[in-house]
Amino acid sequence: MRTRRWVPWLYAGPAILLLIFFLVFPSVETARLSFMDRGGDSYVGFQNYIYAFTNSTMLTAFRNNAIWVVVFTVFTVSLGLLFAVLLDRVRYEKIIKSIVFIPMAISMVGAGTIWKFVYAYRPAGASQIGLLNAIVVGLGGQPIGWLIERPWVNNFCLIAVGIWMWTGFCMVVLSAAYKNIPRQLMEAARIDGANEWQIFRRVILPLLKPTIAVVTTTMIVFVLKIFDIVYVMTNGNFSTEVLANRMYKEQYAFANYGRASAIAVIILLLIIPMMVVNIRRFKQQEAIR
Amino acid sequence: MRRGLLSLTILAMLVVSVGVLAQEVSIAVVWSGTELQAFKDTIAVFESNTGIDVVIDEVGRDLPTVLPVRVAAGNPPDLAALPNPGQMKEFADQGALVALDGLENLADHPQAFLDLGSVDGSVYGFFISADLKSLVWYNTKAFAAAGYEIPTSWPALIALSNQIVADGGTPWAIGLESGAASGWAGTDWIEDIMLRTAGPDLYDQWVNHEIAWTHPAVKKAWEYFGQIVNASGYVYGGAVGALTINFGDSPSIMFDDPPGAYMHRQATFIQSFILNADPDLIPVEDYNIFVFPPISPVFGTPLLGAGDLIGVFNNTPEAMALADYLASAEAQAIWCAALGKLAINTTVDPSIYPDAITAQAAGMLADASTFRFDGSDLMPAAVGSGTFWTGVLDYISGIPLDTVLEAIEASAVDAYGE
């Protein structure tokens, strides 16, 4: 029996309508607002975009987002891979993996608050209430204002919180892929005389490549939108601003809808290439099957 | 017969509804929690005295956004707790507010506060309470033990600070960290100093951005602040301490043994933080206040603060009755006793205050020659809750003052719509 042409639309219709209403319409509306003034009343051309690419705080935010993308992604993915491969050989694998994964269960705001205590500063001589400074002072050093010291120390301290949270996620996904690699391949390599590093480099890594790519792009998409950690811990002060926090400030603190929308559009445009890469890869895999 | 019954019913309904309409007054408020409860308690007395039903519209913290919309739509509440004098002036200029010059109880309000609620010589808003910000808190016993005197001028304040440093102590406890609002505590310092070095007129011009942030008078105020906050050995933990310690935690440093610091400049509300951290402390005996000293003799000792402002939108007898009640000593006594705020009506009995320090602060307020509202609250948010906050943090963290002021000025030119 031939299916009537309208039948697929009948099934897809509700989903398409919901997509239009909840995704397409808001995106188009945000793009429209990004060319309007602060209250969305009159057209201002590219002024909001000019602001976004010239204002000094915005430029700091672009720089910091770039630092986040590189440092956060490199560390979460490589640490995740390291744990996935090495813990496979450890007796207490499950326990250690659980510990690495636990931070994922904590909300971003909660993690920010916890780490704010870790980084807390009290002057030399006073009792240190921050864990990190307590260690530094215990080793005979001077306490450091971890979240004040710009631009590298404080930004890396914030990124460390993100890494602490998301390494577990990368580890779980990569570990699942690793366990799917047929053991015979490694045994065969071993019989052929390959050492452990060669096995990792020539067998494991190529087979994990598609998964690593997916995890990496997921992390990049995630980190481009990074907001909570920065908002809770420094609110972007001391040169730690990021795009999403700036967007939040323009929208809710300063009631400037035009600028907030422009920043939202910029973040969206930055993320789109990553999405395209992900979708392409997905299609390739479908084609293989 | 049936017709008679019907008309009687209609008549009765009419009487009831007119009665209800005439005996009702609405007020939109920003308060919630304990403040809202205190306000309800205050209103309950009015209701039982007059039989007028007060409808409290609990708008909450969105009031600054909601109120202009309702006014523009021609549907304002009868009264409202106005967010700040700036918005009050806008409403008055639009002709939305009722002039309150005739209210009997305003005769007992200090002129400084009436001026703050006036536009073109008419009163459009009055205060039911205030928080006083120009206060320095100190450790009474530590002061007595070291023989320190209360400074009454800026040179004396600096001399005392130097003395404390020479004696091996740290004079100031300053904490500017406040989550997403970090930096606000520093803006209060600069506003207080600006009032003392440049005077109220220039202060008003600064708040309205009629003078630039790079103006010498503004720069001078920042430099005075720098004399304390950037001076070596003056601040507990130095610059990093000031930037990282939470504003609520910083005063309790004064009660470490030995004292981590001797003085803390903050508003009346900080007392609850002090007592929260050290519940055993006794006001006056363990800690006390003195007024932030004058700097230029020309401008004396102006006071900085914030207050709860009331305006009337509909000129009905009930609305005016409620306004007059809120201006009275009776209403303000209930409201302030519950919250530890300072009453504006000078006939409020000082014995209503929970402690001697609050009573003393209320006395300072009553004698105020000049009172100014917290400037950062009056500025557009992008400046007053944006670059002014971050500017303070940047300045203390070592960014040159001119760079800081130019950055704030750039945002101000943008935000004030010039």
Description:
- The complex is a heterodimer of chains A (289) and B (418).
- By secondary structure, chain A is an all-alpha fold.
- Chain A has a single domain, classed as MetI-like fold (Orthogonal Bundle), CATH 1.10.3720.10.
- Chain A contains twelve helices and no strands.
- The radius of gyration of chain A is 24 Å and the shape is flat.
- Helices cover 49% and strands 13% of the residues of chain B.
- In chain B, α2 packs antiparallel against α14 and α8 crosses α17.
- Chain B has 418 residues and is α/β, with parallel strands linked by helices.
- Chain B folds into two domains: 175 residues, D-Maltodextrin-Binding Protein, domain 2, CATH 3.40.190.10; 204 residues, 3-Layer(aba) Sandwich (D-Maltodextrin-Binding Protein, domain 2), CATH 3.40.190.10.
- At the A-B interface, loops of A face α11 and α17 of B.
CATH superfamily placement of the largest domain in chain B? Periplasmic binding protein-like II
Using the coordinates above, name the CATH class of chain A.
Mainly Alpha
Strand content of chain B: 5-15%
Overall helicity of chain A: over 70%
Low-confidence stretches of chain B: 14-20
What is the fourth-level CATH superfamily of chain A? MetI-like
H/E series of chain A:
HHHHHHHHHHHH
Mean pLDDT of chain B: 91
Largest sheet of chain B: 7 strands, mixed
**Which class of the largest domain in chain B in CATH terms?**
Alpha Beta
The N- and C-terminal alpha carbons of chain A lie at a distance of 27 Å
Which structural class fits the helix and strand makeup of chain B? alpha/beta
Low-confidence stretches of chain A: none
CATH architecture of the largest domain in chain B: 3-Layer(aba) Sandwich
